[in-house]
Amino acid sequence: MLCLNSCRAHQTWADDVVLLSIPRFKNDSSTLTDEIQESTLIPLPGGAIGPESFSFDGNGDGPYTGVSDGRIIRWRANESQWVDFAVTSPMRDGCEGPHDHSQKEHICGRPLGLRFNEKTGDLYITDAYMGLLVVGPNGGLASPLAQQLDGLAFGFTNSLDIDHNTGVVYFTDSSTRFPRRNYVSVIISGDDTGRLMKFDPRTKKTTLLLNNLKFPNGVALSKNGDFLLFVETTTCRLFKFWLKPPKAGNVEVLAQLPGFPDNVKRNSIGEFWVGINSKRGKLLEWIVSNSWIGNGLIRVSPVDVTKVHSCLGGLIGGMGMGIRLDGDGNG
Which of 217, 214, 221, 219 is nearest to 193 (CA)? Predict the structure, then answer.
């Protein structure tokens, strides 16, 4: 299975082993080709689960992925094993091991988006709690670059892409109201505090591109750098945001997607793959369309993300899908 959405972890009830779907394909650090020959399921080490995104370095080595205990790990194909590469938080006491990592995410970190800068070899990271960070080619403790904009802290830093000509990083903050562990609350409440931003490493300046978004998630830059595609998970929509004249600043709805989207990646010829995490059933459609219901549930009882996600998974059924589209939203 091609890992296009959140590299969904598949957990076996027998031995609690989590598997990551890894395609074998030719690549550079930020784009996918369509020359997919086979896929391999690779067990994750140390009780970690939930690989969100992946990236390959400038030498084609990897993949690298972030996992639930705050580590970024690297696959060494010649040794058939994962090795630790980086962490996003210096606080590591009690982070690793086979336990519920969600309760310590704000301490241990939860790396989501990963992209290598092709020119410098640096790995840029969006951590749900630590903001935008960077770590050098040799790994280690990542350094924070941005954690707030105009006095409003990032609440759920999610995905990113890099313009390799300018070094500018485009990234999403999914919500300023709810943290990642309560992502179900973002959806059922109709929360619209999400933002699309950019960070220029030359000036160290963060700039707001769009706000009032409903769970902005995956983002990918076009091959020519003239526009971005990004998704809203709550509305299941794909958007196009223009970066260059004459349409700079304009935003268009390109597609209504058949399920909840997660990551977006561009392939070598400029097409985009959108990963769908799960379908949007009638019950969720009703709740999302009537946000007062979700907000009422949240006020009455805090949403336990693990239990709710398991319940919703049983109601809507498992589904993973990758949709290929061009820059105009055509399949």
Answer: 214
Model confidence over 169-218: pLDDT tens digits? 999 999 999 999 888 889 889 999 999 999 999 999 999 999 999 999 99
- Number of folded domains that form the chain: 1
Which amino acid appears at position 214 of this protein? K
Look at residue 35 in the predicted model and tell me its pLDDT: 46
Q: How far apart are CA 112 and CA 44, in angstroms?
A: 16
Indicate whether 1 belongs to any domain: no
Give a three-class secondary structure readout of 41-58.
Answer: EEECCCCCCCCCCEECCC
Q: How far, CA to CA in Å, does 87 sit from each of 140, 170, 295?
A: 6, 21, 34
The C-alpha atoms of residue 51 and residue 64 are separated, in whole angstroms, by 10
- Alpha helices (H) along the chain: 105-108, 183-188, 282-289, 291-300, 305-316
DSSP string, 120-136: T-PEEEEETTTEEEEE-
3 in a structural domain:
no
Q: What is the CATH number of the domain that holds 119?
A: 2.120.10.30
Q: How far apart are CA 235 and CA 214, in angstroms?
A: 7
Please state the separation of Cα 88 from the chain's center in Å: 15
Residue 65 belongs to domain spanning:
10-325
Strand 140-141 and strand 143-146: the pairing is unpaired
User: Is there a contact between 112 and 53 (Cβ–Cβ < 8 Å)?
Assistant: yes
